[in-house]
Design a protein that fits this description.
Blueprint lengths: L1 E6 L4 H10 L1 H4 L3 E4 L1 H11 L3 E3 L7 H10 L5 E5 L9 H13 L4 E2 L2 H13 L4 H7 L2
Parallel strand pairs: 1-2, 1-4, 2-3, 4-5
Helix pairs in contact: 1-3, 4-5
The structure holds 1,3-dihydroxyacetonephosphate.
1,3-dihydroxyacetonephosphate (13P) binds next to helix 3 and helix 4.
Length: 134
Amino acid sequence: MNIGLIAHDSKKELMVQFCIAYCGIMSHHNLCSTGTTGKLIAEATGLNIKRFLSGSQGGDQQIASLIACNEIDLLLFFRDPLTPKAHEPNETTLLRLCDVHNIPMATNIATAEVLIHGLERGDLDWRMIVNQGL
Ligand SMILES: O=C(CO)COP(=O)(O)O
């Protein structure tokens, strides 16, 4: 499965801790991320991550284009709902595209925990069937 990882600055440490905790599961999948998020995760875990630009530089849109092409199976985007971002419209587009394409998406760690366990259990295997049809 292809997993996208993004975290706002105030949630990056949480994302790193999450990836440390679930490194064993995540290492069996293809990971991609926005720039700084991926750098921090890779440094902390040694996970192999394809890194795109920072969100503010268009990284959100790079991941959004993968979602539009059905090339992301799970998005974990740890958002900070309290701090407005200049590139918020891009983030809204990203989340919208997940809904357009029925991509499982977590915007906080509580949902991410459920999805990562579901991923391990095979609950997201239907994504492979969807992708075979493309
Ligand atoms: O800006 C982001 C989310 O919108 C994330 O980008 P970075 O991972 O480069 O900080």
